[in-house]
């Protein structure tokens, strides 16, 4: 158990500042401590919770919030399917519990451990998830409590979400095509939000830009340019250094 | 419980379902079957597209004024974002990126418009 904690600890510690910021924002959005604790356990996604907070503060209607959330959480389909190969001989109940507390960061740790450490078991992986859940929920609750005490400039704390997303974009960059897709997405996002005058613009631009990426890669691969300028690998997708700090050999 | 709290509770439960579906369904299906290639290839570009759109919304769009493109008006956030990109690229640490981003935007807000 302590061995697993050692591996999960860098991740857990990095959750503290973000969890605090998230708790403060949720408090501003009108969530009390209990609701903040509940959302941290049940949704357990930094991006989703920040989004909830900022959209509630902006008085967005519930269906818009849920649609945005769905698209935001859709990326877990990719994470889930890529880690599923390591969870083959587990029960349906285990998969259920595993899915509940799967998120970007514990996925990154677990995926690399599964890929590099033969003795890494699904049970260890679940424990990493639960350690990160514990730290995340704790930080959120503390954030919610101190949010009551101090007044914060919303435009500034709100930027924590943007910084988090920028970090995740940088972590996603696998080749030059990813960077191109990011710029395409930026242009589409501006046009579609200005035209549609709503957050539906985010949904439209995401679908268009990801399709452009998918189609371009498909075209390049079919024309034998797999090692060309755009698709040449820049660096590994998961962060090696962070993982190796987490007790990996 | 107040009406607002009930509404928030409902939102949390619905959010949980919305968050759970994409996490569980592929995990369940693909732990016994192979992943279709096209699905993976398409999903690969969803996160980067969505995250970019969300960053652009915060930095370049004024939602309060009816979704107006603000260009370089939010200079503090533009510069802070460049700092976050550099920090994320070099440190690959989530906590450091967010904390330095917040500090940068706080300091820059004293000089520029947020």
From TrEMBL, chain B:
<dbReference type="Pfam" id="PF05437">
    <property type="entry name" value="AzlD"/>
</dbReference>
<feature type="transmembrane region" description="Helical">
    <location>
        <begin position="67"/>
        <end position="89"/>
    </location>
</feature>
<dbReference type="InterPro" id="IPR008407">
    <property type="entry name" value="Brnchd-chn_aa_trnsp_AzlD"/>
</dbReference>
<keyword id="KW-0812">Transmembrane</keyword>
<feature type="transmembrane region" description="Helical">
    <location>
        <begin position="6"/>
        <end position="30"/>
    </location>
</feature>
<keyword id="KW-0472">Membrane</keyword>
<protein>
    <submittedName>
        <fullName>Integral membrane protein</fullName>
    </submittedName>
</protein>
<keyword id="KW-1133">Transmembrane helix</keyword>
<feature type="transmembrane region" description="Helical">
    <location>
        <begin position="96"/>
        <end position="113"/>
    </location>
</feature>
């Amino acid at each position: 158990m302590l061995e697993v904690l050692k591996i999960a600890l860098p991740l857990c510690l990095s959750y503290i500042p973000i969890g605090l910021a998230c708790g403060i924002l949720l408090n501003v959005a009108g969530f009390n401590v209990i609701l903040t604790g509940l959302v941290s356990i049940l949704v357990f996604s930094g991006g989703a919770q920040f989004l909830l907070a900022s959209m509630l503060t902006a008085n967005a209607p519930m269906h818009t919030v849920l649609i945005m959330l769905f698209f935001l959480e859709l990326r877990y389909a990719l994470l889930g399917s890529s880690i599923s190969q390591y969870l083959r001989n587990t029960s349906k109940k285990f998969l259920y519990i595993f899915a509940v507390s799967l998120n970007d960061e514990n996925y990154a740790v677990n995926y690399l451990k599964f890929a590099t450490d033969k003795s890494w078991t699904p049970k260890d992986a679940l424990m990493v998830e639960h350690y990160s859940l514990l730290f995340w929920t704790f930080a959120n609750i503390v954030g919610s409590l101190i949010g009551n005490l101090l007044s914060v400039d919303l435009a500034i704390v709100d930027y924590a979400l943007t910084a988090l997303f920028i970090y995740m974009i940088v972590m996603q960059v696998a080749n030059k095509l990813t960077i191109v897709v990011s710029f395409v997405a930026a242009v589409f996002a501006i046009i579609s939000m200005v035209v549609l005058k709503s957050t539906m613009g985010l949904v439209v631009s995401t679908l268009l830009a990801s399709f452009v990426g998918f189609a371009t890669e498909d075209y390049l691969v079919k024309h034998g340019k797999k090692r060309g300028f755009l698709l040449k690998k820049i660096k590994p997708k998961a962060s090696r250094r962070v993982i190796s700090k987490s007790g990996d050999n | 419980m107040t009406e607002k709290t009930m509404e928030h509770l409902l939102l949390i439960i619905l959010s949980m379902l919305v968050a759970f579906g994409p996490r569980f369904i592929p995990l369940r299906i693909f732990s016994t079957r192979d992943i279709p290639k096209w699905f993976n290839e398409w999903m690969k570009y969803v996160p980067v597209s969505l995250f970019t759109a969300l960053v652009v919304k915060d930095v370049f769009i004024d939602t309060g004024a009816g979704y107006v493109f603000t260009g370089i008006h939010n200079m503090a956030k533009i510069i802070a974002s460049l700092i976050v990109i550099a920090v994320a690229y070099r440190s690959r640490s989530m906590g450091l990126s967010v904390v330095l981003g917040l500090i940068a935007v706080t300091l820059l807000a004293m000089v520029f418009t947020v």
